[in-house]
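Protein record
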Amino acid sequence: MLSKVHYSILLGALSASMAAQAQDYLPVLQYHHVSASSPKSTSVTPEQFTEHMDYLKNAGFQVVDLRSALDDLKANKPLPEKSVAISFDDAYRNIYQAGFPILKERNFPFTVFINSEPVERKSRSFLTWEQMKEMEQFGGVFANHTISHPYMLRKEKGETDEAWMSRMEKEVDTVESLLVKHLGSSPKMLAYPYGESNGRIRSMMAEKGIMAFGQQSGVVSADSDFENLPRFPASGAYAKLSTLKTKLNAKPMPLLSENAGGDYAGEEPVSINLTFKEGKYRLKDLACYVSGQGKATLEWVSEREVKATASKPFGVGRGRINCTMPDNSGKHYYWYSNVWIRSSADQGYVSEKS
């Protein structure tokens, strides 16, 4: 029989061991097509996808249900060690034809964000509700990617801010209703088309109780903005297993605050201020990279605050700054990314204040 003292010591050691194996962050992989004949920029071949999934299994990763894991993180509950989630955008039928059998064989849960318009008109290139019901039986979850996959921050010609917002609300609410109608429930998750959102759109998501994803890379933690969550793209140029391994070992950048100056880039180079939490970090090894430009200039405002600045303005479209820093073990990288939109007058983007 164990004495009370020995029992307490054993319990404490067990708790410490469990805490050491727990994970307080989540990398989420983003796929689109699983096909050798679809556009390469948004595709993995079935062979590449098999390679990815085999690596997850053989390396001991725990593939978890996305919504459940997000709920746990938000509530500061630990996830299993080496947790990762799998997601797809756009509800392409080749996910069912080529991706689903691979996931099913390995008992991996997954989430598909669907844009409902091509599903409702029964496009042969997109999933059917019947296929979704079958996939649900083997860990598939279906979430919101709007009706028509619009640029959510662009107004139609002559459209008022109020009419634009009403249209965006319909894009979201219609899919929520269809998920309930055809599948019985909605997980209350959304992926922004093209990753684009602003404060007003994100506030709408919060009011509806919907967790939403952008297209900035990084890992989710309790400190994340749950109306603008990061994911790691794993298709096209990002399909190499070597780069995927680095992302799967990423940790959230230990930030106290960030200031990117808004969602839009203008005629001046963008900059972002990052303030780090107290702790022993390899701040001298921090590196920030600007899409299409190389390294950003780093200016240390104080011991724990840095300003990263691009060398030149972005062109029209979306641009980003990615920052990485090795942790003290050297086995993981802290990861942070921010995306800006550089619009042109003819695209009809809402103003920063809208």
Remarks:
- The CA atoms of residues 230 and 312 lie 25 Å apart.
- The chain has two domains: 19-249, 256-347.
